[in-house]
Amino acid sequence: MRFLTSGESHGPGLTAVIEGYPALVKIDKAQIDLELRRRQQGYGRGGRMKVEQDEAVILSGVRGGKTLGSPITIQIANRDWPNWSRVMAPFTGETEQTGGAGRVKIDEDHRLFSIKSEVTAARPGHADLPGALKYGFHDLRNVLERASARETAARVVVGAFAKTFLSSFGVRIGSHVLQIGKVQAKEVGALSETEQKAVDDTVFRCSDPEATKKFIDQVDLAKRDGESLGGVFMVYATGIVPGLGSYVHWDRRLDGRLSQAVMSIPGIKGLEFGLGFAGAGLPGSAVHDPIDYSAERGYYHRTNKAGGIEGGVTNGETLVLKAAMKPIPTLYNALETIDVKTGQRVKAAVERSDITAVPAAGVVAEAMVAWVLADAYTRKFSADTLPEISAAWHRYMELIKWKPKEV
Prior knowledge:
Elements: E1 2-6, E2 13-19, H1 29-40, H2 48-51, E3 56-60, E4 62-63, E5 66-67, E6 72-77, H3 81-84, E7 103-106, E8 112-115, H4 128-135, H5 141-147, H6 152-167, E9 172-180, E10 183-184, H7 193-200, H8 209-224, E11 231-238, H9 254-263, E12 268-273, E13 291-294, E14 298-301, E15 309-310, E16 313-314, E17 319-325, E18 336-338, E19 345-347, H10 358-380, H11 386-400
Antiparallel strand pairs: 1-2, 2-6, 3-6, 4-5, 7-8, 9-10, 9-11, 11-17, 12-17, 13-14, 15-16, 18-19
Helix pairs in contact: 1-6, 1-10, 6-10, 9-10
């Protein structure tokens, strides 16, 4: 399977096209829109989240609530488009242009942000400067509109399709926040379905109430100072059959594919599976998981320090990964930079932004993990329709005599 997204942050909308998705999968539109809402939640989000009420519009590949096996096209409208239509018009003169000077607006949090047709003050930490150098642009809006994390809304829709497919095989994926700024929450692993729903109802998608209170204080302080905050989140996937991925070829190792997918999310700067970096300082006997066998479960591991993958292949335990997100580089108290048009030292451009988006990044990471796993299932149990894939999966389960651990 593969997918492609298109669209700019302040364009008419985003589009995703999914190719290779199996036929006869029942799709719940409400569940797709729920995933979009999960991405928009979280304390510290900016005014954009108050404007956008994302909803998926399915244009092809689904009929009567079931997939057809043909390419699936989904669109998400940018409700803020009318405010930017003059700036983002595809052709000069198609609509009235604001001009290079642009204008400044006050966002819903009473902060200034630019709404200019031309941006020349590169923002440190963004793709602005390297993107301009790559393509020869002097107008950085040509870069920032596509490099924006707004694109991840399309990925969440794609991930919702992947989650629906995986649910047919008992796979469940969730996430929760472990750290905001310097404050760390009590670390827990995979959550039950009830626990995950409860976490999703909290402002930081965190299972630790005391840490959540401290998170709020940190964000309020950062907002006052024109700062931003990063953090760490965990993604888990339960019920994954052993044998997905490959130890044979470097590019088919599942931990490598998952790493690429999660690291492609804007702002993600570090990733670990299971013990991760902590395991580097421990002896081997404290890192690796003893293997056991029972008639009820088949082969299994007594612990899960590997995070569900050994040698690039799933081992039947819960997939556990943690990702570190850097502070958002758009700062209302802007850093110094160089104007790429004049060469003068100036303050970086300010676009409407969040104080932190770690809870949302966890939802996006769920989507990317779901996509990689769904693709791995279709590779392992290759067929055109869900019933055929399910039949191959059942035969494999009987062959290896394996049952997943309940969470």
